[in-house]
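Blinded run. Sample ID left blank on purpose so nobody reads anything into the name before looking at the predicted structure. Input follows.
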Amino acid sequence: ERSRGERTRLKAENFLNLLYPRCCPLCHEILREQKRLVCPEGEKKIHPVSGARCMKCGRQVDKEAEYCRDCGKRERNFMQGKGIFPYDEMWKFSIEKYKYYGCREYGIFYAETIFLFGKKDIIRWKPDRIIPVPLHRKKEKKRGFNQSAYIAGHLSFLTGIPCDEKMIEKCRNTKSQKKLNEQERRRNLKNAFVLRKNVKGLTLLVIDDVYTTGSTMDEISASLMAGGAKNVYFLTLCTGNP
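Blinded prediction complete.
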């Protein structure tokens, strides 16, 4: 039997669905069945990264390779991680609508798919806390929300693992990473994150929307490990080539 709080939440959700019908995060049309997170046609387009993966960042590699080009030539600050889907045009457009055009409900679908395809990894890693990649307060105010925190919060609900948005903070308002090369990205993020809570002995799972060069994940992991974290893992919705 559902708790009173859950019944209240479901009623509020159903009411909001009447006012603002949910759209499919992949085809962006109004869902005929509002209880669904994705339309049947969109469901057929869901294909996670297949084949051999880098043993460190989870990016797709040749069958014989253990590591991708980036992880093979440098030491990473995180223990392991992976992005669930290839960052193609379909996912790029979906994430843009989620982050910049008010389609916040897409985040629930993202969390559900991360949970579905990353559940075995979460069980194996046994994280004590889930941590979203933080946004600088100016960027978060401008955007209206932290897209990674929204995903991480729902993933916490699905897994029962506590989510802590305040554990690490972005203290510098850095340039957008999109148009920067790998070296510029690393310089851009240097000393951009600061710990706000004790992480000593904790195994941590960092959540973000997209993994590309790994610069953001590396810098956050460096801060967490310097603070005494036992291990840092990550999961992202998508993984793309740098």
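Unblinding after everyone has recorded impressions. The first strand starts at residue 80 and ends at 86.
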